[in-house]
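Q: Please design a sequence for this.
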């Protein structure tokens, strides 16, 4: 017999967290996931366009070129406490190998940050990363609109932009 809020996913028993509360509103966890999905696409598209391409981009740490879909949005600072989770200065396109297998390739990422932002921004991001910021539904709704509009500016035909436009969230 399965307990309430638990389900089998991928052959393992996992806790199911509902996307909506009792009133039908999205939970903070669900909204945070939605914002991250949009923010990640924005970061990867931004970095592809900076490299002069639209469908391909360069990993900020190893320098190899990958298709847009193979890139990830990698954070410069770990353990962010939500304060710099969506700070675009500390998130850049990384390949799966650098972001996951090399733990973010921190040494190469630091060199990239020094070249592009300087020591002041690095120190500011590190300082801010220790500040715990609780997310609320209004704050996450604002972040969602902010990054959706930024993504729509870079790529009006993006699938996420189309999805939220269809829902009437952005124009």
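A: Design:
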């Amino acid at each position: 017999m399965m307990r309430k809020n638990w389900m089998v996913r991928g052959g393992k028993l996992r806790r199911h967290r509902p996307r909506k509360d009792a009133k039908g509103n999205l939970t903070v966890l669900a909204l945070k996931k939605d914002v991250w999905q949009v923010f990640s696409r924005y970061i990867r598209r931004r970095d592809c366009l900076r490299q002069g391409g639209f469908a391909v981009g360069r990993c900020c740490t190893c320098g190899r070129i990958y298709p847009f879909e193979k890139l990830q949005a990698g954070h410069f600072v770990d353990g962010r406490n939500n304060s710099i989770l969506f700070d675009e200065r500390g998130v850049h396109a990384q390949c799966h190998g650098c972001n996951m297998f090399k733990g973010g390739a921190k040494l190469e990422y630091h060199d990239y940050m020094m070249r592009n932002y300087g020591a002041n921004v690095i120190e500011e991001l590190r300082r801010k990363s220790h500040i715990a910021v609780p997310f609320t539904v209004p704050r996450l709704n604002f972040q969602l609109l902010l990054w959706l509009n930024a993504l729509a500016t870079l790529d009006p035909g993006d699938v996420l932009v189309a999805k939220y436009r269809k829902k009437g969230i952005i124009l």
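Q: Thanks. Anything notable?
A: DSSP finds six helices and six strands in the chain. The first strand starts at residue 6 and ends at 9.
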